[in-house]
């Protein structure tokens, strides 16, 4: 195919000027507007700056072109330094169609293309008519043009109702942590701690008590409401569809987003159960996709596959995206040997001893009460031990751990990049070892396997790795 | 064989490091011991530490600094096998690393100031999961040939 000249490429929708202006202008211009009040020559200079800030996106739009060929997307632009980037469809990790409020105002969408290894989004077509975005997406996905109803071809795997989202918000992340911590505090604090504190407050009068109680309650309620509202708004109408060998994930009320990830680009799938959700039999599912860039929070959201659902729903979804047998997917994991419990109890004893000694040295004999830390520490040790589990002889390796958030990760053999076996001194004493599976962006740890088992596993997985790609 | 409950301990890799790395590690230990000695000297001077204790700390540090490198050297091993690079290190904290050739993204050799003084190289292997393995203390030729060899087989299934 002959090289095309720039003029053959298409321009973005003119709304791109406004979108860029709003994105850049927020940083450059809007902060300066209050300075206009200063007056004099400063005002003139600032006005000139604003005009330039408005003209720059226009110039950028004039220069920006893109076109698709079978198998590639070519983007070029640059006002002072011209650049041209070719993105092979085969290297695309994910395609996102984003519609923020500023896009909605003009009825356009933004198309973001992520490629593994780069830093940041590799190509952002900031303003396209929705049909054009769909055409580019199809071209990069190497799909034919749409025939008939698309919904028929895409079975829906997940659809969250507003009620589901409320549940997700109430049991997820911050809200759950606040609730759990409050519960713990109530159990941990000795009775006289609260009553003696209350006595002091009573001296301040009844008003003081009400002030403290109502302000704490108010704070928690507001924090909870904000967390809940944020969850519902960002995840509004959360839907996962399967279209052939791809997942389409749609979500958002104000900022709408539609992400597309090829199934074989999923590096690992993790089922997360925090304390609250585990008690309710709920779980959420996240995936690891290589090459995703962006702010931490956004990254977390884009890796979400199921905000919340019953454990069975979560496992069925995981089985679907892994192409695995759903029955017994997370069952019959090999639990950690008893020595692993002893190792954790040893640490708990150390913590309790340190706390007790610090209490005696810092206070007096009454400080010995700090030895009581032993009880929750021992419980935490036991819970951490119970959470451990692994299975490395299946097509998908399974690793489970975590007390507050129990994480069960599933990874397919071809996604494992390297393998490690580590033995610490305390592990040696208990004949234990840890197996570390390297996958892009993460290292999954199967902690405290029986040493002989870990060593056999190390060899087995290494043998399987070398025949995974014929 | 897979069903057998007992399993022989993992075979250690065959190749050991260049002997000169011992000198490098001793030099690094000596620098650390010197720092500790200076710290103890200052503490003694400021009456924070009685003289016998200060001397004892320095002697223990010197003893460890002298003894650890040979042990570390004996426990460091690497091997290029049929399908992968296999390394093993450490006695107290054991780490065995396995990197299949077809997962290697790229290989580089590095030289810090101390490495240069002893004309040694470090070899670092990257996979898509990031830095996957590092072999210190390789001679000029060994490091160069290893880098070439691993770069050649990177992305292939076997040697």
Short description:
The complex is a heterodimer of chains A (470) and B (159). By secondary structure, chain A is of the alpha+beta class.
What does this structure look like?
The complex is a heterodimer of chains A (470) and B (159). By secondary structure, chain A is an alpha+beta fold. Chain A has helices at 15-28, 40-63, 101-104, 130-141, 150-153, 162-171, 173-188, 191-203, 206-234, 275-280, 296-302, 311-322, 338-362, 374-387, 425-429, 451-468, and strands at residues 65-69, 72-77, 83-88, 92-99, 109-115, 123-128, 156-159, 239-243, 246-251, 256-262, 266-274, 282-289, 304-310, 334-335, 389-391, 396-401, 405-412, 418-423, 432-439, 442-450. Chain A has a seven-stranded antiparallel beta sheet with strand order 6-5-4-10-9-8-7. A seven-stranded antiparallel beta sheet of chain A has the order 13-12-11-17-16-15-14. The two termini of chain A are 33 Å apart. A three-stranded antiparallel beta sheet of chain B has the order 1-2-3. In chain B, strands 4-5-6 form a three-stranded antiparallel beta sheet.
Low-confidence stretches of chain A: none
Number of helices of chain A: 16
Distance linking N and C termini of chain B: 26 Å
Largest sheet of chain B: 3 strands, antiparallel
Rg from Cα of chain A:
28 Å
Terminal residue distance of chain A: 33 Å
Percent strand of chain B: 25-35%
Find the structural class of chain B using helix and strand composition: alpha+beta
| Average of per-residue pLDDT values of chain A | 81
- Given helix and strand content, the structural type of chain A is alpha+beta
The coarse silhouette of chain A is globular
Helix content of chain A: 40-55%
Query: Number of DSSP helices of chain B?
Result: 4
Task: Tell me the greatest interface.
Answer: A-B, 32 and 28 residues
The main sheet of chain B orders its strands as: 1-2-3
Shape of chain B: elongated
Global mean pLDDT of chain B: 87
């Amino acid at each position: 195919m002959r090289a095309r000249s720039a003029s053959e490429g298409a321009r973005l929708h003119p709304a791109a000027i406004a979108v860029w202006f709003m994105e850049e202008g927020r940083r450059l211009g809007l902060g300066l507007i209050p300075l206009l009040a200063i007056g004099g020559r400063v005002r003139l200079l600032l006005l000139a700056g604003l005009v330039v800030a408005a003209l720059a996106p226009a110039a950028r739009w004039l220069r920006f072109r893109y076109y698709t060929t079978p198998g590639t997307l070519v983007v070029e632009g640059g006002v002072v330094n011209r650049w041209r980037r070719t993105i092979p469809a085969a290297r695309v990790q994910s395609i996102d169609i984003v519609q923020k409020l500023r896009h909605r105002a003009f009825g356009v969408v933004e198309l973001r293309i992520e490629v593994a290894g780069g830093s940041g989004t590799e190509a952002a077509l900031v303003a396209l008519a929705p049909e054009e975005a769909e055409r580019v997406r199809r071209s990069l996905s190497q799909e034919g043009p749409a025939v008939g109803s698309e919904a028929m071809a895409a079975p829906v795997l997940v659809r969250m109702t507003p009620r589901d989202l409320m549940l997700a918000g109430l049991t997820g992340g911050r809200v759950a942590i606040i609730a759990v911590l409050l519960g713990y505090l109530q159990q941990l604090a000795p009775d006289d701690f609260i009553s003696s504190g209350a006595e002091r407050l009573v001296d301040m009068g009844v008003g003081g008590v009400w002030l403290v109680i109502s302000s704490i309650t108010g704070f928690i309620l507001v924090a909870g409401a904000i967390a809940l509202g944020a969850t519902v708004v960002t995840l509004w109408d959360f839907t996962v569809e399967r279209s052939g060998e791809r997942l389409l994930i749609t979500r958002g009320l104000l900022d709408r987003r539609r992400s597309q990830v090829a199934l074989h680009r999923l590096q690992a799938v993790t089922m997360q159960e925090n304390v609250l959700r585990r008690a309710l039999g709920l779980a959420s599912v996240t995936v690891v996709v290589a090459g995703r860039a962006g702010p931490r929070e956004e990254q977390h959201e884009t890796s979400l596959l199921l905000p919340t659902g019953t454990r069975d729903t979560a496992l069925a979804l995981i089985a679907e995206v892994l192409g695995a047998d759903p029955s017994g997917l997370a069952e019959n994991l090999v639990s950690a040997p008893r020595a692993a419990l002893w190792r954790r109890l040893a640490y708990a004893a150390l913590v309790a001893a340190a706390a007790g000694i610090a209490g005696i040295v810092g206070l007096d004999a009454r400080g010995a009460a700090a030895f009581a830390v032993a009880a929750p520490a021992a419980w935490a040790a036991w819970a951490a031990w119970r959470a451990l589990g692994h299975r490395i002889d299946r097509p998908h390796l399974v690793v489970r751990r975590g007390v507050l958030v129990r994480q069960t990760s599933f990874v397919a053999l071809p996604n494992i990049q390297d393998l490690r076996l580590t033995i610490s001194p305390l592990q040696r004493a208990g004949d234990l070892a840890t197996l570390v599976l390297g996958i892009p962006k993460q290292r999954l740890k199967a902690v405290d396997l029986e040493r002989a088992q870990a060593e056999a596993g190390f060899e087995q997985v290494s043998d399987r790795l070398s025949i995974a790609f014929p | 064989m897979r069903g057998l409950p007992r399993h022989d301990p993992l075979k250690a890799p065959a190749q050991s490091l260049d002997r000169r790395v011992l000198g490098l590690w001793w030099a690094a230990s000596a620098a650390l011991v010197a720092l500790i000695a200076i710290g103890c000297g200052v503490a003694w001077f400021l009456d924070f530490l009685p003289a016998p204790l200060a001397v004892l700390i320095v002697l223990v540090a010197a003893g460890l600094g002298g003894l650890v490198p040979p042990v570390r050297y004996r426990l460091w091993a690497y091997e290029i096998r049929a399908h992968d690079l296999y390394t093993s290190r450490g006695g107290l904290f054991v780490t065995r690393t396995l990197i299949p050739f077809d997962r290697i993204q790229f290989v580089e050799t590095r030289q810090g100031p101390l490495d240069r003084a002893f004309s040694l190289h470090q070899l670092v292997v990257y996979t898509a999961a990031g830095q996957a393995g590092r072999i210190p203390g390789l001679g000029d030729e060994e490091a160069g040939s290893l880098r070439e060899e691993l770069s050649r087989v990177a992305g292939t299934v076997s040697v």
